[in-house]
């Protein structure tokens, strides 16, 4: 059907009164009609506001979906407060015309049906290829949502686990001894510890373990992080940890009297 169809002769008169056009109802742009124009087209004898309120109530129309009301400013020529302005969606207007139960109502409803068909025919045709493209695009969006919602969190959980526990150690390097950050502090004679020191040292040893390529393990009971002896030696011997050592221990290390702490019993990798 052509979008430029001439108005049928039977609707020629009503088309000059009940003009259907795009209107905002709620948050949607829809085909609608002005309430006063509809009232005039249906040739209703009842007062506009009274008639509109009755039809809205009897048909169960919803504001923001089927109609909108706008307070009218200025004076009412017939006296009293100014009447409100109404706009109705074309669907609501068809129902209103139908319940008039007279020839005028049938005519108005027929005209609105013709307006809908004309508006529909004006929509651009969509090729099969375009429909397939849109379907694939929608499917891609659905798959992306599934990945973001279900798969990505699992990957992040695994990454956190690898980050926190399962760092890879160099091939052929056996785990000789490991302790928690607090254990290494005690081993190096740091008895007096400020609040939070163990946690800061643990974070530093963890970062250094990853850079050096040594495994970070956990205690079985409490799940606390344990660090390789080589990493601890590097941190407390030449790294930032040496400034935490008591002066007597630091002097011994500088003089070469204690090159390394006594190793633990070696265990296989």
What does this 3D model show about the protein?
- This protein is of the alpha+beta class.
- The chain folds into 2 domains: about 10-120, no CATH class; about 160-269, no CATH class.
- Helix content is about 45%, strand content about 10%.
- The chain is built from 9 helices and 7 strands.
- It has helices spanning about 35-40, 50-60, 90-100, 105-120, 130-165, 180-185, 195-210, 230-235, 245-255, and strands at about 20-25, 30-35, 65-70, 85-90, 180, 215-220, 225-230.
- It has a 4-stranded antiparallel β-sheet.
- A hairpin with a 6-residue loop joins strand 6 and strand 7.
- Helix 3 (about 90-100) packs antiparallel against helix 4 (about 105-120).
- The longest helix has about 35 residues, at about 130-165.
- The relative contact order is 0.09.
List the helices and strands and how they pair.
Layout: E1 21-25, E2 28-34, H1 35-41, H2 48-59, E3 67-70, E4 85-89, H3 90-99, H4 103-121, H5 128-164, E5 178-179, H6 181-187, H7 197-212, E6 217-218, E7 225-228, H8 229-237, H9 247-254
Antiparallel strand pairs: 1-2, 2-4, 3-4, 5-7, 6-7
Helix pairs in contact: 3-4
